Structures are given as structure tokens and as C-alpha cells.
Amino acid sequence: MAQEAEDDGAQTFLLTAGEAEATVGYKLRLAQILAFRAFEEKLSDRGRAPRYLGLLAIIRNHPGQPQSRLAEAVALRRSSLVTILDILAGEGLVERRPVRGDRRSNGIWLTKMGSRVVDELLAESRRHDAMLTEGLSQEEVGAALRALDRMILNMRNAEGG
């Protein structure tokens, strides 16, 4: 079964995934890809920061957290997060500082530039959310957020964390 889509006024038919179209996982992944691609394309002049807005927002809300806690918060392996933090540090958005009382551990903080970038990206994210939820009532948006929160909790519980 094909879905109709409009492309510059002309009708085209999108290829569909058959039975996968009826699964939440498939729909979540497709929505995530489309949403992030559109968000990143709007902000292509911002380096890689738009891709990591969630992580940057967590760092802003919880400055000084060790990398292990941040990895847990964004559901990444620690080794993957190290690479991302290296990128963000290279772009001048975050910095590592020693944690008081634990010489083996570094905490992660936003730089002044990182804080400014997060503010700008969050403003754009709110505009992007308005586009994503166009045509939905506040109740529908709230229900979608609650359903997503529940799915995230289910996945964290299934992983044992």
C-alpha cells in the first residue's frame, strides 16, 4: 500500500513498509528521522550542536555531571558519549573539569558560548515543535508526550536501567 504525498503540487506515492507500518517502533523511528533531518537542515550553520541539543540541555540543567551519568541520561554507551563530548568540546560548547573529591572523574559543563547556543537552539526547537504538532490540540500533544514518556520508561525498564 502506498501513501499519497504532495511534492511541489504534484502527487507522488511513497513506498511503504507493509506490516511494519502498524508498529510503534517503525513509526517512532521514521518520525524521529524526519523531525531531526528538518531541524538540522534549518540549522546547518550551527555545526553539530542541533544534533546534540538534548544532551546539551541536560548538561545545562545538571552542570558538572560525570560522563557516565550523562550517557545514562541520553541512553548512549559511555564510549559513544566520549566521542560526542570531544566534538562538542572541539566546537567550544562544553568543557571537562575535574570533579572535587574525585581526581579520577571529570564533570561536564557548558561554556558561555555553549549556553548561548542552547538558548538559541531551544527557541528554534519550540518553533519546530509547533510545526510538528500543527493541527493537534493541546490535549493530543499532551497525550502524545505522556505516551512517549511511558514508552521511554518501558524501554529503560527492559534494559534494566
Automatic annotation (TrEMBL):
The HTH marR-type domain, residue ranges: 21-153
Top-rank lineage group of the source organism: Bacteria
InterPro entries per the UniProt record, alphabetical: HTH_MarR-typ, WH-like_DNA-bd_sf, WH_DNA-bd_sf
Family annotation (Pfam families): MarR
Key words of the record: DNA-binding, Transcription, Transcription regulation
Name of the protein this chain belongs to: Winged helix-turn-helix transcriptional regulator
Species the sequence originates in: Jiella sonneratiae
